[in-house]
Amino acid sequence: MYDMSFRYEVAHRPGGEGLFLCFSCGVCTATCPVAEVEEEFNPRRIIHQVLLGDRSVLASRTIWMCAACFRCVAHCPQGVEFANVLQVLREMAVEEGHVPLTWKQIIEDLDSRTQRLRRDVIASLWEKRAFTFPEYEDLWKERLEGGRHGENT
Ligand code: SF4
Ligand code: SF4
Fold first, then answer.
1. What is the domain range of residue 46?
2. What percent of the chain has pLDDT over 90?
3. How confident is the model over 26-68, as pLDDT tens digits?
4. How many independent structural domains does the chain possess?
5. Alpha carbons 62 and 32: distance in angstroms, whole number
6. What does each C-alpha distance from 37 to 29, 65, 67, 83, 96 come to in angstroms?
7. Do residues 79 and 119 share a domain?
8. What is the pLDDT of residue 152?
C-alpha cells in the first residue's frame, strides 16, 4: 500500500529538502561503510522506498543502522544529503509510534560513545604509543602484533 503524500511530508521537513533530487545512482550505497558490512542496509533503496510512498520504511530497523559518517553526503552527485533524510525518517518513526523515543536516545548515545572510543583509541596510540584497551585486544590482535613488530624493526 503506497502513500503518495509520504514523500512530500519527508521533503518538507528540515533535512529532507533534497529528496526529489535523487536519481537513484547508488553512489551513497557504494560509499557507505555500514552497507559494506550489513547488506540489509541500502541507502539508495531507502530513498527509493520513500519516493515510492512506501511508509513501511518507518517501521524498519534499517533506518537506525546509519553511523552518521556523512560519506554519502560528500559523494552524492545530486546533493540529496541522505544522512539528513534519514534523520527525518527517524523523527517520523518516533512520532508515528514505530519506536519509543528512548530507543532513539539509546542509539544517539551509542553513536556518541563510539566517537568517544575512537577519540580515546587514537589518543592512546599517539600519546602512549600503546593500545590500552585490553577488552578489544582480541579484535585487533594480529594488527597489534604487527605494530609491535614494526616498532622493533
Ligand atoms: S542519494 Fe545521491 S548518491 Fe544516493 S542514489 Fe540518490 S543521487 Fe545517488
Ligand atoms: S552517513 Fe550513514 S548512510 Fe551515509 S555513508 Fe555514513 S553510515 Fe552510510
1. 6-98
2. 78
3. 999 999 999 999 999 999 999 999 999 999 999 999 999 999 9
4. 2
5. 13
6. 11, 11, 12, 18, 29
7. no
8. 47
Residue 132 CA, chain-centre distance (Å), reads 27
Does residue 145 sit in the same domain as residue 88?
Answer: no
Nearest atom (ligand 1) to Cα of 43: 4
Q: Are residues 28 and 79 in the same domain?
A: yes
Q: Whose CA is nearest to atom 5 of ligand 2?
A: 32
What per-residue confidence (pLDDT) applies to 146? 78
| Ligand 1 pocket mutation pick from 44, 48, 50 by most atoms within 8 angstroms of CB | 44
